[in-house]
Write a structure and sequence with these properties.
seven-stranded parallel sheet; binds guanosine-5'-triphosphate; nucleotide binding
Length: about 325
């Protein structure tokens, strides 16, 4: 029986991993893809942002795939393999704070994974706008070092001179990886899937100890605040608060994302923030049977949880109705 090809999609917070995953899942291929999506925060937003397809999607939330939910990753893959469902390929989207080394290690050391799956490639999405800032985090450096393919994404936000500078830096950090420039991860799928690029020899050259057991230690100053609220929000108030927030703490606010319930709106509102960049768009229609719940996640350094919660509550529509 031939082994199932597995792609690890990695890249720092907000680089474009889910954008790439959605591109793959929407490609119209007849393959059955088993997808595992790992999110750092206790509220899983990505599950709602991944396109609905025939493919099997398992969410591993509330922890990083390189440490707290690593055993869950192995259990999830084993259970998918045992389920008897048709699977042609695995794709694993790590959280933006994951060190890929322990994930790679699981594929080599776990007897079921190593017997049934073959690592095809590590594809790392790099955010052209934010990468220099992100490289102060060890995880961002490791994600680049272990990549077989580096997608230099968000090229629409930087000029040619800056892109050449980033490419030079990426090549210094990982001379073996192929670099492909993208906007919204518009890569040819043949350049990232089924490419047989993973080579343990290269990985051992970067990290000779990769096969030794070690737990990954995250920077303890980085945390996550998750907010869930059934009360409708006032869009103008939220926009004002978030604009002020990113001006004040944008350097330390690595990632913000939310699926929000705006008062009087038939659709959800999907919000993305990466440092100072904010982007929003209408999402799926609320069905009458659904509870209209806002979910929002903030990931960053030394976050003031009380302040964020109070800021969020100050945007509730009922407060503004009372004030007017
Ligand atoms: N301008 C621009 N924005 C992009 C591009 N690719 C993705 N984005 C935006 O970047 C934000 C983050 O994209 P995601 O695909 O959710 O990033 P991610 O890596 O999955 O994020 P996490 O899972 O939170 O780490 C969204 O607002 C995207 O629309 C791009 O090429 N250019």
């Amino acid at each position: 029986m031939s082994k199932l090809k597995t792609t690890i999609l990695t890249g720092f917070l907000g680089a474009g991993k889910t954008t790439l995953l959605n591109r793959i899942l929407s490609s119209g291929s007849s393959e059955h893809i088993a997808v595992i999506v790992n999110e750092y925060g206790e509220v899983g937003i990505d599950g709602q942002l991944v396109v609905q397809t025939k493919d099997e999607i398992v969410e591993l939330n509330n922890g990083c795939i390189c440490c707290t939910v690593r055993d869950d990753l192995i259990a999830a893959i084993r259970s998918l393999l045992a389920s008897g469902r048709p699977i042609d390929r695995f794709i694993i989207e790590t959280s933006g704070l994951a060190d890929p080394a322990p994930v790679i290690q699981s594929f080599i050391l776990d007897e079921v994974l190593s017997a049934r799956l073959e690592l095809d490639a590590i594809v790392t999405v790099v955010d052209a706008r934010h990468i220099s800032r992100q490289l102060s985090q060890e995880e961002a450096v490791e994600q680049i070092s272990f990549a077989d393919v580096l997608l230099l994404n968000k090229i629409d936000l930087e000029d040619e001179y800056r892109l050449i500078e980033i490419e030079r830096d990426l090549t210094k950090r990982n001379p073996l990886a192929r670099i492909i420039r993208t906007s919204s991860c518009d890569v040819e799928l043949a350049d990232i899937l089924g490419i047989g690029a993973f080579d343990l020899k290269n990985i051992l050259a970067i990290d000779p100890n990769i096969l030794d057991e070690h737990d990954h230690e995250h920077d303890q100053t980085i945390g996550c605040v998750a907010i869930r609220d059934y009360e409708a929000l006032d869009p103008a108030a939220l926009n004002g608060w978030l604009t002020r927030l990113v001006q004040e703490i944008g350097t330390d606010l690595f990632r913000m994302k939310g699926v929000l319930n705006f008062a009087g709106e038939a659709r959800r509102y999907v919000l993305h923030g990466v440092h100072m960049t904010l982007e929003g768009r209408p999402g799926k229609i609320w069905q009458p049977s659904e509870a209209r719940l806002s979910e929002m996640v903030f990931i960053g350094r030394n976050l003031d949880e009380g302040g964020l919660r109070e800021g969020f509550r100050s945007c509730l529509a009922k407060r503004h109705a009372l004030a007017s």
